[in-house]
């Protein structure tokens, strides 16, 4: 594939609201373009003027470290004007609705709005209220599409592809938008997806194209990648949360337990981690197996690819 071919590819959607509805070709385009940014991000000078004069506004109504910083870096590396909206000091406190807030920001003519919000499906509902490109940076328990893309890029770099690979996603699947987007993406790309966790944290059988395991040992056996998730206490009644020690005993990824997976299996975590709960510190820090910080690096590359590819229709008119 030539660079010209890569630079001319587009995706079938105006907005990035979720992995739902994205085909293999769209996913592959975003991963291929992200690969070029992963390489350029290793250079001393990382910035280009590709999107100079365009504007990106990040509206985060929930906390974030990785997603917010990497979207800001991605926009700045493309030469965009980047504005971060501060929900706590905004006019939301004066009673303004979310859709009025969004329409107000949209009236300032940004090219891209990146939105994180606690309500599932909110970005899809808001898409009709804006003219600019809308990117979902995580909505409730629903989707976190750029996280799934950066996870897929990391997996592809280590395993060479997805077809026939066994990916075990372990922990609190039910409350995790990361799991939702990853299951959709990985199963579409031909991976065998396993969902592993206590019954209370698993979706119903048949909801996703994935096998369910309530035994951690069986679920990670011979897996090519083991993706750990934290317990999303903010999205559940905390009285129903399991004790952390008990959870670690039965579902924590320890060095001993990791021996059940393939010898080459990579260990993943979207972050933030709760060390000693879903993952033991020595596993998280094992440079031979853990790709957790590489996932973070791929996050910047993927978000640069999203900004590049989704703005191509605007730049080509
Ligand atoms: N993985 C992820 O979304 O992390 P942040 O909440 O820090 O953005």
Mind telling me the C-alpha Rg?
19 Å
Structural class: alpha/beta
**Strand segment count:** 9
Low-confidence sequence ranges? none
The tally of helices reads 12
Shape: globular
> What's the average pLDDT?
95
Oligomer: single chain
Q: Residue share in helices?
A: 25-40%
Beta-strand portion reads: 5-15%
Structural topology:
Layout: H1 3-8, H2 24-40, E1 55-60, H3 66-77, E2 81-86, H4 98-107, E3 112-117, H5 122-126, E4 133-139, H6 145-159, E5 166-170, H7 177-188, E6 192-196, E7 211-213, H8 216-220, E8 225-228, H9 244-251, H10 255-258, E9 266-268, H11 281-284, H12 292-315
Parallel strand pairs: 1-2, 1-3, 3-4, 5-6, 5-8, 6-7, 8-9
Bound molecules: phosphoric acid mono(formamide)ester.
Residues 64-67, 138, 147, 270-272 line the site of phosphoric acid mono(formamide)ester.
Please provide a brief summary of the model.
By secondary structure, this protein is an alpha/beta fold. The protein has helices spanning 3-8, 24-40, 66-77, 98-107, 122-126, 145-159, 177-188, 216-220, 244-251, 255-258, 281-284, 292-315; strands at 55-60, 81-86, 112-117, 133-139, 166-170, 192-196, 211-213, 225-228, 266-268.
Protein described:
With 317 residues, this protein is an alpha/beta fold. It is built from twelve helices and nine strands. It has helices spanning 3-8, 24-40, 66-77, 98-107, 122-126, 145-159, 177-188, 216-220, 244-251, 255-258, 281-284, 292-315, and strands spanning 55-60, 81-86, 112-117, 133-139, 166-170, 192-196, 211-213, 225-228, 266-268. The strands form two sheets. The protein has a five-stranded parallel sheet. α3 (66-77) packs across α12 and α6 crosses α7 (177-188). The mean pLDDT is 95. Bound molecules: phosphoric acid mono(formamide)ester. Phosphoric acid mono(formamide)ester (CP) binds at residues 64-67, 138, 147, 270-272.
């Amino acid at each position: 594939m030539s660079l010209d071919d890569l630079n001319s590819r587009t995706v079938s959607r105006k907005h990035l609201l979720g992995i739902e509805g994205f085909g293999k070709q769209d996913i592959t385009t975003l991963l291929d373009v992200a690969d070029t940014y992963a390489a350029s991000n290793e250079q001393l000078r990382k910035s280009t003027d590709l999107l100079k004069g365009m504007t990106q506004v990040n509206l985060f109504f929930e906390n974030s470290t990785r997603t917010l910083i990497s979207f800001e870096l991605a926009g700045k590396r493309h030469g965009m004007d980047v504005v971060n909206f501060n929900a706590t000091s905004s006019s939301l406190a004066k009673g303004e609705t979310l859709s009025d807030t969004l329409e107000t920001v949209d009236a300032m003519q940004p090219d891209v709005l990146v939105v994180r919000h606690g309500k599932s499906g909110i970005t899809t509902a808001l898409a009709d209220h804006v003219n600019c490109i809308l990117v979902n940076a995580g909505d409730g328990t629903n989707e976190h599409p750029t996280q799934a893309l950066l996870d897929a890029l990391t997996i592809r770099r280590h395993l060479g592809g997805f077809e026939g690979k066994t990916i075990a996603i372990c922990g609190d699947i039910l409350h995790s938008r990361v799991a939702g987007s990853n299951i959709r993406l990985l199963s579409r790309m031909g991976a065998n997806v396993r969902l592993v966790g206590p019954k209370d944290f698993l979706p119903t059988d048949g909801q996703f194209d994935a096998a369910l395991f309530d035994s951690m040992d069986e679920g990670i056996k011979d897996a090519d990648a083991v993706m750990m998730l934290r317990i999303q206490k903010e999205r559940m009644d905390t009285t129903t949360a399991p004790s952390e020690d008990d959870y670690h005993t039965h579902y924590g990824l320890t060095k001993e337990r990791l021996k059940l997976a393939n010898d080459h299996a990579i260990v993943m975590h979207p972050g933030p981690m709760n060390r000693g709960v879903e993952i033991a510190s020595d596993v998280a820090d094992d440079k031979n197996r853990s790709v957790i910080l590489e996932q973070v690096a791929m996050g910047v590359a993927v978000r640069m690819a999203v900004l590049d590819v989704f703005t191509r229709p605007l730049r080509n008119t």
